[in-house]
Amino acid sequence: MREKMQPQRHRDTERMEITERFVSGGAGRIYFRAMAGSGVACARIGLLHGYGDHCGRYEHFYRWMGERGVSSCAFDFRGHGRSEGKRGFVARWEEYLDDLSVFLAQLEMSERAGPPVFLVAHSHGALVAVMAALRELLAPVAGVILTCPYFKSGVPVPWYKAMAAKVGDRCWPSVRVYSGIRAEWLCCDEEMIEDSRRDPLGHHIATPRWYSTMQVAQSEVMRRAGEFKMPMLMVIGKKDRIAVAEVGEEFYARAGSGEKRILVYPEMLHEVLREKERLLVFEEIVGWMKSLIQRRGAEAQRRDLI
Known about the structure:
This protein has 306 residues and is of the alpha/beta class. It is 34% helix and 21% strand. The chain contains eight helices and eleven strands. It has helices at 59-66, 95-104, 124-134, 159-171, 190-198, 208-223, 245-254, 278-305, and strands at residues 8-11, 17-25, 28-36, 43-48, 70-75, 117-122, 141-147, 177-178, 205-206, 232-237, 260-265. The strands form two sheets. Strands 1-2-3-5-4-6-7-10-11 form a nine-stranded mixed beta sheet, with helices on both faces. A two-stranded antiparallel ribbon has the order 8-9. Helix 3 packs across helix 6. It is globular and about 55 Å long.
């Protein structure tokens, strides 16, 4: 998919400065965007979207954060949204880690360019974030917010599809198969559901290579949960039909993070950032980030006094 775009920067009617550009990635160009309010930011977030998803679906989240002094950056993984690459396909699952490294290398995400950086990683993006942490690729990141992490799929896969995936992984790894995920499984907000149905940039396919390598990644992440040490806020929608909530909770319990917190919303589905009561989640995210920043600042002051 080719889309011409010169680096753009403009302010919208609510004094948000928005930057958009394409950057070079391993499968072609990667779409990158940033949004910041008019004041001095107290924190920065980098959003990692889910599989079949894209960063443009979280405009409301960036804007809400910007109004509260949190700047945001986001990108589309290869094969997603406005980025190039075969839809839903990777030759190696680690290519998603390569995309993340490109994202973190952008000036807006640089450790020296401003306030602390946090990753807000949703679903499959959470799987990528945790794997990156386990492989020590998140040096500039102060903490991670994992929303409905995709550590085990809750979508039933018929035996014949599972068999076809194994054969396809060897013979036709990029063949497109309908994922079967429905818009009404994502959240309970009717406007957001309709937005998902009409979205031309989302995709509803899976490929054998992604499916098989994703399962390997899920197994590694769960096996190595105790090695995960980063500060973590986990947000779970208990009625999630796409990512198994209990497996996310298991990872949380086993994680070696010294600072961690979990929020479980009994009535929410998979996309907690697009749910009816999403503002509750937004408030918790901001509160957790600010609390962590304050504790880190107090610890630094104590060290200076010693």
